[in-house]
C-alpha cells in the first residue's frame, strides 16, 4: 500500500495572518444581515417551534412505534432481534407467553430509552416481523424528566404512522 | 406356456383343505426330507439357485447359510406374507388356494435351519387369509404333521407355526421392519449390518423369507435341485408367480419359468390389451421399480438379469400394465400418494421427499404446475436414491424418477395445458 | 496396539481405532460434521442422514455415524459433491419446518440454523402454505415443552427415555411427514432426568418450560462449575447474564460432558437448583438484629473470637470448598477453637437413585472428610453443650433448632436468608456457592474446581476474604 501525501491548506502567509479571512467572512455576514433586514421573507432559518418543518421525507427516522396485526393486536413477538442489533443498548424487552392463540410469544415489557437511542434505525432493519418502525414523523420529543423519555410498550403501540407520509 | 410348480394345486376346488390337498400330493416331500441331513437340504436349495421372490431376488440357500450353526439360542423362521406392494398379489393366491404347501415349505425350511418356531407375518388386511392359514395350521396340528414331532413321530423334530397379523403398514414387509413390528415395536427398518449376516429377532438368529420362496422349497426337496433348474434360465432357474394387472383381457397370477418375453406373456396369457387399446407402459415388478415404455416392453425378457440389463428389475413379478388412455402425471400422482402414505418416516429424505413430490404433483394436477416442477421432482428423486436406511426411498426414486424422465414430454404438455389463470 | 489404524480425513492422516465409529473421529478433528440423530450417549440411529461423508472406494456417500473405521480409509467431508448432498438433505429437513425462530427459544443454539448458515443458503422451493401442520406448545410435563412442527424426528428424545431412563414415555406417532413425537396417551414425562431431552434435542422442538422466553441464549455468558445438589457434583455450565441496569443473574444450568463424573446428563432437581442461587439471599450484616456495615460486623466477630478462643465451636459444612475448609481448620489449629462439620440434615435417602443422584445433598463431604474434620454426632453434641460461642458457617443444621442456642453467643456466616438470623448475635452475609472460586471433592473422590464468572453489582465478600480480614483484625488486637 502506498501513502498519499495531501498538501496542507493554510500554509500561505495570507492564511497565516487570519485577518483577510476574518474580513471576508464578515463581508458575507454583513451581506446577509443587510438583505434580511430589508426583506425577511426568504429566511432559511425557521422560528422553531412556532414554525414547523414541512419537508420531512418518508425515510426520516422519528420516534419508534410498534405496529399491529390485522386483528389490531401487537405484531411484536419479543424475539429481541432489535435489542440485539441496537448499538446503544437502549431497548429493554421482557418476553411472555401469548395466550390468545395468535402467536406463542409477545413482549410483556418493551421499553425504549430515547435518551440513549441514537436513532440509527437498526432496530427497524433487524425486525423479522415488521413490528417496529420509525415512521411516526415525531422528530422532536420533549419531556422534563429523564424517566419520561423511556417509552413503554403502550406508548409505542399508541404511536401511529405519520399522516404526512405516503401510504405504502 | 405356464410351468406349474407352486401353483400346481391352484385349480383344484377346495385344495386349501388338508384332505383335498393330501390327495393331490401335499406333504409329499417330507418323506424324502427326513432322509436328508439339514446341511443337505440347504445345499440342495443352494444348488437349485432358488431366488427370493419377495423382490430382492437374492439366493435363498446362501441366505440360509448365514444362520449360525450350533448356536445355543433359539432360531426363527419368519415368513413374510405382508404383500402390500401395489401390483403384487401372488402370495395371497398361495395362502388362499394352497396353505398346506406353505406349511410344507415351512417344515422343510425349518428342518434345514434347525428352527422350531416359525412365524407367518401376514398383512393386516388379509384377515380372511390369516383365518385360512390358521385353519390349515390347526388341521396340521391335529393331523400330527407339526407340533411336538413331525408327521406323527416320523421325525423327532418340534415345530410350531404362529400366524401374526400386521397392522397394515407396507413398510412392515421390509424384513427388518417386519421383525421390529413382530417384536412389538414400531415398524422401522433397521440399519444394514456391515457384514452379511442373518436377521435378529429379539437378539436371536432369524431368517425372513417370502411366502412364495418358502412354497418353492418342497419341490426342490422332493424332486431334487436338478429337476428345478431344468426350468428357466441358467442364472434365474425355476419358476415365478407373475401377476398381471391393468387393462389386459385376462389379468391374474400365472406361474412361468424364467426367460419368457414379457410381451408374449401379456399377449397370450394376458389375452392382449382390453378394447384394442395400445400398450403404453409396464411397471414390471410391483410399482417399486423403473417403468418400461412400450418399446422396452417389446424387448423385455422375464428373468432377473435381462431385466437389469434394460434398466429395471423383476421385483416381485407383479406387472402393472398401462394403456394409452392413462395420463402419466396421474399415474405418478397415484403412486406417490401411496409412498407418501406408507413411508415409515424414519429417514429425512424419504419422510420429507415423498411428501414433497406429492405436494408438487398435487399442484400440477390442480393447475398450478410450473415447468421447473419437473426438475424439482427429479432433484428430490436424486436425494431419495441411495441415501436412506432401507430401499423404500430408492424404489420411489426408481419409479417416479423413471416416469418423469421417460414421459417428460407428457408432463410438460400437461403443465402447459393445465396452467390456471393465475400462473403465467 | 494392532487395533490402531491410520485413516485420512480431509487430507490429514489420523490414527483411529479399528471398528470405532467414524463420526467420533471427525469430532475429534474438530470437523463440525452436521448431524442430528447421532449422540455419543445414545449411539447410532442413522435416521437423519445429515452426517454423510465421501469415502474413497464407495460409490455413494456414507453416513459417518454408521461407518466403522477401517485401515487406509480415505474420508472427505468437504467438496462440492458432498456439500450438495448435505444441502439437499437439509433442504428436505426444512421443507416442513415452521422456521419460527423469532419465537423459538432454541434460536442461537439450533443445529438447523447452524447448518443452514454453514452450508445451506439456497433459494426456498416450497411454499409456506403447503407445510405440514402439527401441534405447538404442548406441555409434556416435567418442565418440558414440545413443538411438534419443529421436530426433525432424530429420535434422540425417545431413545433417551427408552434406553437411558427406561421410562419409555415418548414415542413416534403417525407416519411419513405426519410423524410426530408425543408422550403415549395418558402419560406424562415422569423421569427425574426428563429435562435432559431439552439439551439432547438438536432443534427447538423440546424446550425447557422453566427457561421458556426468559432470555435469548446469545445474550448469555457461561462458566464451568459443578452442581451442589448432591455429592455427585455433576459438571455443569452456568449460564448467566448481567443485563443493563440489572444485577448478574443465573438463567439456567446445563450439563457439561464429564466422563469422570456425570457423563452427559444431570438430574432435573440439580438443573433447577440454580434458583437457590438467585433467590432468598442474605444481604445485610447485622449485630443484634441491627443492620451494620460489614466492617463493624467483622470487628465484632474478631473481638468475640479473640476473647473466647477456647470457648468457641466453629461449625462448618460440606457446602464449603476445600480451600475454605482448610483455612478454617488452620485457624482452629492456631487459635485453639474447636471445629465440627456435623451436618446430618443434608442426608436424604429418598433422593438417591441408580443413575446419578446420591443420598447426600451436599457437594463436598468427601473434601471435609479428607481434611479430617470431625462430623461425629456425639462429639458435636458434647461440644455444643460446652461451648459458649457458636460460629455457624454455611451450615443449615440449626434452621429449625434455634432453641439449642439458649445462653450462647451465636455468629452466623450465611449466603442464604435463614431463620437462624433472628437468633444470632452477629450475622455476616457471604458469597454463595457459585459466586466464589474453589474446589470440591465428590463422593467418588473426583476433585473439581470452580472459577466463578458472576459479577454482582454489589458483591458480598467470600468467606475466604472475610475470614482473612477477621484474622488480621485479631492479630492487630493481639
Ligand atoms: C419397502 C419394502 C417392502 C417389502 N415388502 C415385502 C413384502 O410385502 N413381502 C415380501 O415377501 N417381501 C417384501 N420386501 C422384501 C423383504 O425385505 C425381504 O427381502 C424378503 O421378504 C426376503 O424374502 P425372500 O428372500 O424370500 O425374497 C419388501 C422390501 C421393502 C424394501
Ligand atoms: S434507533 Fe438504533 S439506537 Fe435507537 S432503539 Fe433503534 S437500534 Fe437502538
Ligand atoms: S420489535 Fe421486532 S425485532 Fe424487536 S422484539 Fe419485536 S418482533 Fe423482535
Ligand atoms: S427409506 Fe423410508 S421407509 Fe425406509 S427407513 Fe427410511 S423413511 Fe423408512
Ligand atoms: S428449531 Fe427453532 S431456532 Fe431452529 S430453525 Fe426451527 S424455529 Fe428456528
Ligand atoms: S423432539 Fe427433538 S430430540 Fe425428539 S425427535 Fe424431535 S428433534 Fe429429535
Ligand atoms: S447423525 Fe448420522 S444419520 Fe444422523
From TrEMBL, chain A:
One of its GO terms (cellular component) is plasma membrane. It catalyses: a quinone + NADH + 5 H(+)(in) = a quinol + NAD(+) + 4 H(+)(out). Residues 67-96, 108-137 form the 4Fe-4S ferredoxin-type domain. It is a peripheral membrane protein. Keywords: 4Fe-4S, Cell membrane, Iron, Iron-sulfur, Membrane, Metal-binding, NAD, Oxidoreductase, Quinone, Repeat, Translocase, Ubiquinone. [4Fe-4S] cluster 1 binds at residues 76, 79, 82, 127. Its EC number is 7.1.1.-. The keyword S-adenosyl-L-methionine does not apply. [4Fe-4S] cluster 2 binds at residues 86, 117, 120, 123. Binds 2 [4Fe-4S] clusters per subunit. One of its GO terms (molecular function) is NADH dehydrogenase (quinone) (non-electrogenic) activity. It is found in: Cell membrane. NDH-1 is composed of 14 different subunits. Subunits NuoA, H, J, K, L, M, N constitute the membrane sector of the complex. NDH-1 shuttles electrons from NADH, via FMN and iron-sulfur (Fe-S) centers, to quinones in the respiratory chain. The immediate electron acceptor for the enzyme in this species is believed to be ubiquinone. Couples the redox reaction to proton translocation (for every two electrons transferred, four hydrogen ions are translocated across the cytoplasmic membrane), and thus conserves the redox energy in a proton gradient. PANTHER family: NADH DEHYDROGENASE UBIQUINONE IRON-SULFUR PROTEIN 8, MITOCHONDRIAL (PTHR10849), NADH-QUINONE OXIDOREDUCTASE SUBUNIT I 2 (PTHR10849:SF24). Belongs to the complex I 23 kDa subunit family. This is NADH-quinone oxidoreductase subunit I. It comes from uncultured Sulfurovum sp. The lineage of its organism: Bacteria, Pseudomonadati, Campylobacterota, Epsilonproteobacteria, Campylobacterales.
Automatic annotation (TrEMBL), chain B:
Keywords: 4Fe-4S, Iron, Iron-sulfur, Metal-binding, Oxidoreductase, Ubiquinone. Residues 329-374 form the NADH-ubiquinone oxidoreductase 51kDa subunit iron-sulphur binding domain. One of its GO terms (molecular function) is oxidoreductase activity. Its EC number is 1.6.5.3. Pfam families: Complex1_51K, NADH_4Fe-4S, SLBB_2. InterPro entries: NADH-UbQ_OxRdtase_51kDa_CS (IPR001949), Nuo51_FMN-bd (IPR011538), Nuo51_FMN-bd_sf (IPR037225), Nuop51_4Fe4S-bd (IPR019575), Nuop51_4Fe4S-bd_sf (IPR037207), SLBB_dom (IPR054765). It comes from the Bacteria. It is an enzyme of class 1 (oxidoreductase). Belongs to the complex I 51 kDa subunit family. NCBIfam families: PRK13596.1. This is NADH-ubiquinone oxidoreductase chain F (EC). It comes from uncultured Sulfurovum sp.
TrEMBL record, chain C:
It is an enzyme of class 1 (oxidoreductase). Its main location: membrane. Signal peptide: none annotated. GO terms for molecular function: 2 iron, 2 sulfur cluster binding; 4 iron, 4 sulfur cluster binding; metal ion binding; NADH dehydrogenase (ubiquinone) activity; oxidoreductase activity; quinone binding. InterPro entries: 2Fe-2S_ferredoxin-like_sf (IPR036010), 2Fe-2S_ferredoxin-type (IPR001041), Mopterin_OxRdtase_4Fe-4S_dom (IPR006963), NADH_UbQ_OxRdtase_75kDa_su_CS (IPR000283), NADH_UbQ_OxRdtase_ferredoxin (IPR054351), NADH_UbQ_OxRdtase_Gsu_4Fe4S-bd (IPR019574), Prok_molybdopt-oxidoreductase (IPR050123). Residues 220-281 form the 4Fe-4S Mo/W bis-MGD-type domain. The keyword Oxidoreductase applies. CDD domains: fer2. Its cofactor is [4Fe-4S] cluster; [2Fe-2S] cluster. GO terms for cellular component: membrane. The keyword Glycoprotein does not apply. Residues 81-120 form the 4Fe-4S His(Cys)3-ligated-type domain. Keywords: 2Fe-2S, 4Fe-4S, Iron, Iron-sulfur, Membrane, Metal-binding, NAD, Oxidoreductase, Quinone, Translocase, Ubiquinone. GO terms for biological process: ATP synthesis coupled electron transport. Belongs to the complex I 75 kDa subunit family. PANTHER family: NADH-QUINONE OXIDOREDUCTASE SUBUNIT G, RESPIRATORY NITRATE REDUCTASE. This is NADH-ubiquinone oxidoreductase chain G (EC).
Amino acid at each position: 500500500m502506498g501513502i498519499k501525501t495531501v498538501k496542507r491548506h493554510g500554509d500561505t502567509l495570507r492564511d497565516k495572518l487570519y485577518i483577510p479571512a476574518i474580513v471576508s467572512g464578515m463581508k458575507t455576514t454583513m451581506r446577509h444581515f443587510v438583505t434580511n433586514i430589508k426583506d425577511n421573507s426568504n429566511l432559511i432559518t425557521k422560528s422553531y417551534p412556532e414554525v414547523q418543518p414541512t419537508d420531512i421525507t418518508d425515510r426520516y427516522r422519528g420516534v419508534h412505534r410498534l405496529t399491529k396485526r390485522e386483528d389490531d393486536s401487537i405484531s411484536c413477538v419479543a424475539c429481541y432481534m432489535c435489542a440485539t442489533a441496537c448499538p446503544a443498548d437502549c431497548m429493554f424487552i421482557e418476553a411472555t407467553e401469548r395466550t390468545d392463540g395468535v402467536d406463542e410469544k409477545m413482549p410483556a415489557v418493551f421499553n425504549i430509552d430515547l435518551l440513549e437511542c441514537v436513532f440509527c434505525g437498526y432496530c427497524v432493519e433487524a425486525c423479522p416481523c415488521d413490528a417496529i418502525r420509525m415512521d411516526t414523523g415525531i422528530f422532536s420529543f420533549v419531556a422534563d424528566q429523564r424517566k419520561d423519555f423511556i417509552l413503554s410498550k403502550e406508548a409505542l403501540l399508541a404511536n401511529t404512522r405519520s399522516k404526512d407520509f405516503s401510504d405504502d | 406356456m405356464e410351468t406349474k410348480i407352486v401353483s400346481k394345486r391352484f385349480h383344484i376346488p377346495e385344495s386349501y383343505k388338508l384332505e383335498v390337498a393330501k390327495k393331490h400330493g401335499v406333504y409329499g416331500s417330507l418323506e424324502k426330507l427326513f432322509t436328508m441331513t439339514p446341511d443337505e437340504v440347504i445345499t440342495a436349495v443352494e444348488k437349485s439357485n432358488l431366488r427370493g421372490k419377495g423382490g430382492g431376488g437374492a439366493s435363498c440357500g446362501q441366505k440360509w447359510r448365514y444362520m449360525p450353526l450350533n448356536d445355543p439360542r433359539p432360531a426363527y423362521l419368519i415368513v413374510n406374507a405382508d404383500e402390500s406392494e401395489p401390483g403384487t398379489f401372488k402370495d395371497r393366491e398361495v395362502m388362499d388356494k394352497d396353505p398346506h404347501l406353505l406349511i410344507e415349505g415351512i417344515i422343510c425350511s425349518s428342518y434345514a435351519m434347525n428352527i422350531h418356531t416359525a412365524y407367518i407375518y401376514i398383512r393386516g388386511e388379509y384377515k380372511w387369509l390369516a383365518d385360512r392359514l390358521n385353519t390349515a395350521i390347526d388341521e396340521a396340528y391335529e393331523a400330527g404333521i407339526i407340533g411336538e414331532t413331525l408327521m406323527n413321530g416320523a421325525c423327532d423334530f418340534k415345530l410350531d407355526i404362529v400366524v401374526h397379523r400386521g397392522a397394515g403398514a407396507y413398510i412392515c414387509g421390509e424384513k427388518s421392519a417386519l421383525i421390529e413390528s413382530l417384536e412389538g415395536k414400531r415398524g422401522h427398518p433397521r440399519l444394514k449390518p456391515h457384514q452379511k449376516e442373518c436377521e435378529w429377532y429379539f437378539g436371536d438368529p432369524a431368517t425372513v423369507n417370502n411366502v412364495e420362496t418358502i412354497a418353492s422349497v418342497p419341490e426342490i426337496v422332493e424332486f431334487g435341485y436338478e429337476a428345478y433348474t431344468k426350468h428357466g434360465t441358467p442364472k434365474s432357474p425355476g419358476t415365478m408367480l407373475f401377476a398381471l394387472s391393468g387393462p389386459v383381457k385376462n389379468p391374474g397370477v400365472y406361474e412361468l419359468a424364467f426367460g419368457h418375453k414379457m410381451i408374449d406373456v401379456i399377449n397370450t396369457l394376458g389375452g392382449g390389451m382390453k378394447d384394442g387399446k395400445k400398450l403404453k407402459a409396464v411397471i414390471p415388478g410391483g410399482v417399486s421399480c423403473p417403468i418400461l415404455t412400450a418399446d422396452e416392453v417389446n424387448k423385455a425378457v422375464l428373468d432377473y438379469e435381462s431385466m437389469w440389463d434394460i434398466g429395471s428389475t423383476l421385483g416381485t413379478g407383479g406387472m402393472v400394465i398401462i394403456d394409452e388412455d392413462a395420463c402419466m402425471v396421474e399415474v405418478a400422482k397415484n403412486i406417490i400418494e401411496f409412498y407418501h402414505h406408507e413411508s415409515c418416516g424414519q429417514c429425512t429424505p424419504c419422510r420429507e421427499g415423498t411428501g414433497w413430490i406429492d405436494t408438487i404433483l398435487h399442484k400440477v394436477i390442480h393447475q398450478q404446475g410450473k415447468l421447473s416442477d419437473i426438475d424439482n421432482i427429479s432433484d428430490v428423486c436424486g436425494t431419495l436414491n441411495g441415501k436412506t436406511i432401507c430401499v423404500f426411498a430408492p424404489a420411489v426414486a426408481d419409479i417416479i424418477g423413471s416416469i418423469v424422465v421417460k414421459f417428460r414430454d407428457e408432463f410438460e404438455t400437461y403443465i402447459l395445458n393445465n396452467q390456471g389463470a393465475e400462473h403465467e | 496396539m494392532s487395533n490402531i489404524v491410520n485413516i485420512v480425513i480431509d487430507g490429514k492422516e489420523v490414527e483411529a481405532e479399528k471398528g470405532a465409529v467414524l463420526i467420533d473421529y471427525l469430532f475429534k478433528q474438530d470437523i463440525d460434521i452436521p448431524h442430528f440423530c447421532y449422540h455419543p450417549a445414545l449411539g447410532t440411529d442413522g435416521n437423519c442422514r445429515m452426517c454423510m461423508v465421501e469415502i474413497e472406494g464407495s460409490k455413494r456417500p456414507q453416513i459417518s455415524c454408521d461407518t466403522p473405521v477401517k485401515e487406509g480409509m480415505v474420508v472427505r467431508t468437504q467438496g462440492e459433491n458432498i456439500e450438495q448432498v448435505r444441502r439437499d438433505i437439509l433442504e428436505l429437513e426444512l421443507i416442513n419446518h415452521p422456521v419460527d425462530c423469532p419465537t423459538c427459544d432454541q434460536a442461537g443454539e439450533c443445529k438447523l440454523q447452524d447448518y443452514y448458515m454453514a452450508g445451506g443458503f439456497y433459494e426456498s422451493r416450497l411454499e409456506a402454505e403447503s407445510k405440514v401442520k402439527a401441534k405447538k406448545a404442548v406441555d409434556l410435563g416435567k418442565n418440558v415443552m414440545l413443538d411438534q412442527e419443529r421436530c426433525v424426528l432424530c429420535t434422540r428424545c425417545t431413545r433417551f427415555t427408552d434406553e437411558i431412563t427406561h421410562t419409555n414415555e415418548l414415542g413416534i406417532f403417525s407416519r411419513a411427514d405426519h410423524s410426530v413425537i408425543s408422550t403415549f396417551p395418558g402419560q406424562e414425562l415422569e423421569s427425574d432426568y426428563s429435562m435432559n431431552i431439552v439439551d439432547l434435542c438438536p432443534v427447538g422442538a423440546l424446550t425447557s418450560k422453566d427457561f421458556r422466553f426468559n432470555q435469548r441464549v446469545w445474550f448469555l455468558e457461561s462458566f464451568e462449575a459443578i452442581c451442589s445438589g448432591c455429592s455427585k457434583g455433576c459438571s455443569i455450565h452456568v449460564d448467566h447474564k448481567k443485563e443493563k441496569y440489572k444485577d448478574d443473574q443465573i438463567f439456567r444450568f446445563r450439563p457439561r460432558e464429564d466422563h469422570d463424573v456425570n457423563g452427559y446428563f444431570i438430574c432435573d432437581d440439580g438443573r433447577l437448583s440454580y434458583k437457590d442461587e438467585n433467590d432468598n439471599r442474605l444481604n445485610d450484616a447485622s449485630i443484634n438484629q441491627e443492620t451494620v456495615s460489614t466492617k463493624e460486623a467483622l470487628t465484632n466477630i474478631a473481638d468475640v473470637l479473640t476473647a473466647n478462643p477456647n470457648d468457641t465451636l466453629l461449625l462448618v459444612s460440606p457446602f464449603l470448598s476445600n480451600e475454605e475448609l482448610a483455612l478454617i481448620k488452620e485457624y482452629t489449629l492456631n487459635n485453639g477453637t474447636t471445629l465440627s462439620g456435623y451436618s446430618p440434615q443434608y442426608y436424604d435417602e429418598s433422593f438417591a437413585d441408580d443413575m446419578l443422584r446420591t443420598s447426600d445433598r451436599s457437594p463436598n463431604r468427601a473434601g471435609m472428610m479428607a481434611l479430617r474434620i470431625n462430623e461425629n454426632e456425639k462429639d458435636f453434641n458434647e461440644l455444643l453443650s460446652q461451648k459458649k460461642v457458636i460460629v455457624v458457617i454455611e451450615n443449615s443444621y440449626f434452621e429449625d433448632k434455634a432453641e439449642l442456642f439458649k445462653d450462647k453467643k451465636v455468629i452466623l456466616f450465611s449466603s442464604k436468608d435463614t431463620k437462624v438470623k433472628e437468633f444470632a448475635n452477629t450475622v455476616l452475609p457471604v458469597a454463595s456457592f457459585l459466586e466464589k472460586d474453589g474446589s470440591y471433592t465428590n463422593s467418588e473422590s473426583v476433585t473439581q474446581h470452580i472459577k466463578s464468572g458472576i459479577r454482582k453489582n454489589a458483591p458480598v465478600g467470600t468467606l475466604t476474604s472475610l475470614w482473612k480480614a477477621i484474622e488480621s483484625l485479631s492479630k492487630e488486637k493481639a
